[in-house]
């Protein structure tokens, strides 16, 4: 069946401003939108630029706006979105070419929450013990693939690029609620800043956008409570 | 050159977020609305009372029209209900798992508590005029 | 099995205001319920239509509603308890509202100096609001 | 533009990041990666990392060693295998100390699950050796290592694709990289270079590998005269999603899932009476292929069912007498499936509308892992001939390297282990080397060779499209150099690939710009894939036996007399030169391999 793609193109070497271009490709209901993009790039117009790698929703390269919502191109099938598909780059980050956005600001926020395990006590000979329940506490937020679909769906982030953003909160949550970690206090100080958790207005765009189905808003809620109560539970 | 990261208000509105985003927008609009008309109302009331200012009296007359009352009632009720939902979720993050259910509950309460009074309001206003 | 670990966290105005917004919201709802309850019990219900009554409930002074034939109810309200009640309510409402405005504006403004100026301006606006309201409540 | 670092690491997957962590402790280090580091293919590894921790039941590194040797069909070098299996235990604890969120046992220890080919050497039963974090172990390893790299302030050059290796007088002195954002060529001058660039599953049509898994590292070294070892051994994972190739972890069978044919029979009982569905991967893939060839594919199509529905699992577990470690009979509930295999359930629901809890999953063998690659010794040093001559300053680790611990067939969970053990080792050694040696001068005009290649792609006649060539190559390779191979088929594949290489000269890219020109890089990658395909097909054609993943219909037996040796393939202008070197055997003499 024929599928119509409407792609927002922007080539900084040629265009002053972005414009839509239409392509018609042959597609099956079970094709990924990424397959269609590949068809365009390989057989119709090689200048189309987008990121992709694993093609099954694990690497997080191909987050983009598909029919107005942030999705991974490889996790959306044609039958989910119909035969007219509008594809645009993510909102709130500088577009460098076609569907490619500059990810640097995103990773800067990511780095700002100390997204790494800190425990300076000398480790035991074997593993640090952790109960199944303690492990379960932060399981959800370990799933994050840093695709930026959540952060770029957040109206607070659109309004201000300084907002730390859901993806970084998810990372903070993963470590703050890890019973082995010892740097929760430092991270909470960062989250307590003006552009921290208090800018989250429970809009749930991030939760809806997450391709890994992480309950992001809930995680942020737990972070808010951790700051408020001054303890983690 | 890379394009600017700025997201215009309209571009933001074009994002097809689900109910949560609609609620967020309504919450902001109703909130700002309440601030605006309560603010003006207080000032107008003060000036009217103290100086017998004509403009203030005129403003107050607008406030008392039933159409405007309906609007204010919508804003206050919506803002109150949505605010309560947000507060509950913020205080008990576990509730966020049921955010969709909470939204439907909120709308159900809203429809009932907005519908009946406004029905009577419109009826009495129309019959009295 | 689950451990609860204490953390230290520096108090910050953002957090205080976030908390204020939540609790003032809830308190306003509570106050509104009390006011209405009392208004009903004072017989307001039988005399007024709904919108007028709503305003009469929240701000009971004779000058408030100009174009209605409202009996002089201020007698029942003019005691210290209800005056303090009203002042408290206006304090919460104005704080809640102006803080809301601040949130919206700060979402779109990131320059620190501008933000600081805005905060001062809004604080003054809040003070002015309070002064007006207190004056009306106490001296009308 | 020119940069200078003591150690340059090419590739930011598991091996690259592990190497970066260790190299940066002793030397000024930079990591070059054509993707953002967290996008690397390590992240898609699912089932677990093998280490004989014995936290669930008795296990020993020696058993792990033997299982790996046996899994490799005795082609793995036993000294390096022993090293890896001994190192496995401390290095897994080290990952835990870095914060990796492993699943836990009730005692709070790292949880382990059974995997194909992991056995208790005394009883012959399957043993729990795969340490796992749900079914996203690779994802957690990649994330954890990247997090530690951030903590240690390691320099990254993200979206820099390495296109050439610089060698002066037989000493490696740096790399040339293409910056995606600007199209500029950068020269990186280094004392030592670690290549950790991953595999080349995209040579085949149906693969579990990423689009970017194009074996650039091996392509580059082949062009610079460094051989590739054991290229004919490429693993086909038994359970990829039908047509898509997306991986369904062996952990599914570890949890009790079984493979069923169109007669709803558990056919693995015939092919591997003891290990059954948890036999080594090449054995299972071959069995599936034979079932399908004999017309027992589901609905006559080329797929079989992988069934992890609790009823089925419990039925067969009871039949096998499988028990929990405490001796009670093994039971699996729907909730267990959902808790232990969340990602698998997600894939099946998203891509096939199949719910594994209530329906069987359609699977077929999928190109998965390269056992061969750049020949290295146990310290990651690259060897450039059959006499094991070391090229100073050049290291390789991870899937692109052939140590060779995997021999003719890799055991499940040993890939992640390979990454972390040899990533660490090569990082340590590369830094040591950098500390003991000075910079070697770069060749004149270092970017010349690269520029020629790119210019050719920009200015070609345009008669051919790179995508067409890739597709033709993938098809011929999957049909003829796949699970089962024949003389004629491989001959055809060699000819076809050579023809495609000719036609590759005519390619011209559409995108003539410089900023984010992904078109030209994709075309360049097709060039790499073609080189690798040729080397693979030629190496396979010569090996007249069946061993591990290399299964020939015309030579169905293993031939230890003639073929117990590693292939070294050198890419020459118009041909592939093959040489051979012996396999290191220490403790375990080759025996028949029965599961």
The name CATH uses for the topology of the largest domain in chain A is Fumarate Reductase Iron-sulfur Protein, Chain B, domain 2
- Quickly give the CATH architecture of chain C: Up-down Bundle
The CATH topology of chain C comes to 3 helical TM bundles of succinate and fumarate reductases
Number of domains of chain C: 1
Name the pair of protein chains with the most residues at their interface, and give those residue counts.
Answer: A-D, 63 and 62 residues
The main sheet of chain A orders its strands as 2-1-5-3-4
Continuous helix count of chain A: 9
Overall number of domains of chain A:
2
Sheet-strand content of chain A, in percent, reads 15-25%
Oligomeric description of these chains: heterotetramer
| Helix content range of chain A | 25-40%
With helices defined by DSSP (H or I, 4 residues minimum), what is the helix count of chain C? 6
List the helices and strands and how they pair.
The complex is a heterotetramer of chains A (233), B (129), C (140) and D (595).
Chain A: E1 2-9, E2 19-26, H1 33-44, E3 63-66, E4 69-72, H2 78-81, E5 84-88, E6 95-97, E7 100-101, H3 104-112, H4 132-137, H5 155-159, H6 166-176, H7 184-191, H8 205-209, H9 216-229, E8 231-232
Parallel strand pairs in A: 1-5
Antiparallel strand pairs in A: 1-2, 3-4, 3-5, 6-7
Helix pairs in contact in A: 3-6, 6-7, 6-9
Chain C: E1 5-6, H1 13-41, H2 44-47, H3 50-58, H4 74-77, H5 80-108, H6 112-139
Chain D: E1 2-10, H1 14-26, E2 29-33, E3 49-50, H2 61-71, H3 78-97, E4 112-119, E5 126-131, H4 137-151, E6 155-158, E7 160-168, E8 171-179, E9 185-195, H5 216-223, E10 228-229, E11 234-241, H6 251-254, E12 258-260, H7 268-271, H8 281-293, E13 304-307, H9 310-320, H10 334-340, H11 342-352, E14 361-370, E15 374-375, E16 381-383, E17 390-396, E18 401-402, H12 414-436, H13 448-459, H14 466-480, E19 484-485, H15 487-504, H16 518-542, E20 551-552, H17 560-563, E21 565-571, E22 576-582
Parallel strand pairs in D: 1-2, 1-9, 2-6, 9-17, 15-18, 19-20
Antiparallel strand pairs in D: 3-5, 4-5, 7-8, 8-9, 10-21, 11-14, 12-13, 13-14, 16-17, 21-22
